[in-house]
Structures are given as C-alpha cells and as structure tokens.
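Page 42, continued from yesterday. The earlier attempt failed because a stray header line got pasted into the input along with the sequence. Redoing it now with the clean sequence only.
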Amino acid sequence: MVEDNHKGKWRGRTPQNKLVFFEDGGDWKGKLVDVEVIYTSPYSMQGRLPGSSAQPDLNAPLLVFAD
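This time it went through. Structure tokens are written below.
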C-alpha cells in the first residue's frame, strides 16, 4: 500500500511491512501497487512500476523515516 510521496518518490510498504520507494508522476496515495524491486538495502527497497524504463539514482542518499 502506498503511504505518501516524499521528495519525488512514492513510499509504500509490503505486506511484511518493508519499505519500498518508487518514482512515478501519477497519484498512488492509498492504492495497492505491484512494484518490481530492482535494488535492496538493509532497511528498504527501490522499485519501479512494471514496464517502466525509469532507473532510480542508486548513488543518491536514501532517507528512511520512522514514525
């Protein structure tokens, strides 16, 4: 489920409560989205929508916020 958009990336969680970030210009807040995971780190994952050719900048710092 997609939670919100933060600094140009959508942030959501898997059913196992793992963070997943992806980029897209649409409005995904509150929706369930299938995301293709293309990079993992100890605390989160980077993904893209299936069929999207967009590649995230893996050298950019990844900020993870806990509520």
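Notes: The CA atoms of residues 5 and 31 lie 12 Å apart.
Reminder to self: strip header lines before submitting.
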